[in-house]
């Protein structure tokens, strides 16, 4: 079975021309880059370097500690740490790839660096309702399991599969795996497993990748998870909804590292009959509460995020943020649960 084409003929010609004419290429993704943001970016960079292109991956801020093993990650430039250098490279670029986000707001502070940029811009993303005004070429595939899937398919359509290295394949697999919770959700399409077969042919060790991502935490993190699940998670509507809260003080107490809350929002979904989980976490940098939502089946947590949490996302995985304090955020979450009780 061949993968269906993502690019229309005109898009293919434009992308080929952009890459051929570019000397300096920037690849960027959203703030707080996750496994898919990093995996798609590093995988694409690996391919573009086989074409002898000067490529720099730039992220708005730092990534989770458990992703530091990824091939090529030491060369990622962090905008928050070196904003002047990063902005200069962005303005020098002939071509910019924007991966795993659908509007410049997801870059937060780094969005300023894109003002006046004359480079061609290509957006590859799988989120709903992309801003169609910020890219010269938009490849939006909401049904894709991850942006890493899109990047693999674009590379394949460009004839670049043979050039993709084992390191690049490992990055793309990591992005696909993390954005589907180890292929436990948003991963029923047969094409996904065809891509996995092609990545395995590159010699990746998928079991080691799984351990690197999901079995790479500190003892403090294990204690932190136990504490949040046992002491900071409340259940509503006859155990059909759950709200978990995390304060700055608690993160400090458990020696929190960036990424230690990764996957925590999914754990209450193990309760029989639970439909939606809302995680409320005090931000360590700003006076806001970070909101993550996860749901199962047809519960639209993206609609809940849009209506109550200034956010959005996918049907079963969304996010947003609320102003301080945490207590008010909890009341907002309870209002959201009451509003959507007929779907619980």
How would you sum up this structure, described in words?
It is a single chain. By secondary structure, the chain is an alpha/beta fold. The chain folds into two domains: 9-214, Alpha-Beta Complex (inorganic pyrophosphatase (n-terminal core)); 219-343, Diaminopimelate Epimerase, Chain A, domain 1 (Roll), CATH 3.10.310. It is 36% helix and 18% strand. The protein contains eleven helices and twelve strands. Helix 2 (35-50) runs parallel beside helix 4 and helix 5 (166-178) crosses helix 7 (206-214).
CATH top level of the largest domain?
Answer: Alpha Beta
Kindly report the name of the CATH homologous superfamily of the largest domain: inorganic pyrophosphatase (n-terminal core)
Cα-based radius of gyration, to the nearest Å = 20 Å
How many helices?
11
- Overall SS class: alpha/beta
Give the total of domains.
2
CATH architecture of the largest domain: Alpha-Beta Complex
**How many strand segments?**
12
Shape: globular
Order of helices and strands: HEHEEHEEEHHHHHEEHEEHEEH
Unreliable segments of 5+ consecutive residues? none
Residue-averaged pLDDT:
95
CATH topology of the largest domain: inorganic pyrophosphatase (n-terminal core)
Placed side by side, the strands forming the largest sheet appear as: 3-2-1-4-5-6
The description of the largest β-sheet is: 6 strands, parallel
- Strand coverage percent: 15-25%
Report how far the terminal alpha carbons are from each other. Answer: 39 Å
Provide a concise account of the structure shown:
The chain is of the alpha/beta class and 344 residues long. The protein is built from eleven helices and twelve strands.
């Amino acid at each position: 079975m061949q993968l269906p084409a993502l690019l229309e003929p005109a898009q293919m010609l434009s992308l080929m021309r952009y890459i051929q004419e570019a000397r300096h290429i920037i690849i960027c993704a959203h703030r707080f880059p996750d496994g898919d943001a990093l995996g798609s970016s590093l995988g694409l960079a690996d391919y573009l370097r086989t074409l002898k292109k000067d490529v720099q991956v730039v992220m708005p801020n730092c990534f989770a500690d458990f992703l530091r093993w990824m091939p090529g990650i030491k060369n990622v430039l962090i905008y928050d740490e070196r904003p002047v250098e990063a902005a200069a490279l962005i303005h020098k670029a002939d071509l910019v790839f924007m991966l795993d986000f659908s509007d410049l707001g997801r870059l937060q502070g780094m969005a300023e660096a894109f003002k006046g940029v004359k480079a061609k811009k290509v957006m590859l993303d799988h989120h709903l309702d992309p801003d169609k005004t910020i890219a010269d070429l938009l490849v939006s595939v909401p049904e894709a399991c991850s942006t890493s899937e899109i990047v693999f398919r674009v590379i394949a359509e460009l004839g670049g599969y043979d050039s993709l290295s084992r390191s690049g394949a490992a990055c793309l697999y990591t992005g696909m795996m993390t954005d589907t919770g180890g292929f436990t959700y948003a991963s029923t399409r047969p094409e996904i497993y065809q891509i996995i077969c092609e990545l395995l042919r590159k010699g990746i060790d998928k079991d080691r990748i799984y351990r690197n991502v999901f079995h790479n935490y500190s003892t403090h993190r294990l204690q932190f998870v136990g504490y949040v699940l046992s002491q900071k998670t409340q259940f509503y509507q006859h155990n059909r909804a759950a709200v978990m809260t995390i304060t700055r003080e608690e993160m400090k107490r458990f020696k929190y590292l960036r990424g230690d809350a990764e996957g925590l929002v999914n754990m209450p979904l193990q309760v029989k009959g639970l439909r939606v989980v809302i995680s409320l976490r005090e931000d360590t940098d700003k006076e806001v509460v970070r909101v993550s939502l996860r749901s199962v089946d047809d519960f639209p947590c993206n609609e809940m995020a849009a209506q109550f949490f200034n956010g959005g996302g996918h049907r079963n995985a969304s996010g947003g943020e609320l102003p301080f304090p945490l207590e008010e955020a909890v009341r907002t979450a309870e209002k959201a649960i009451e509003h959507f009780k007929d779907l619980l």
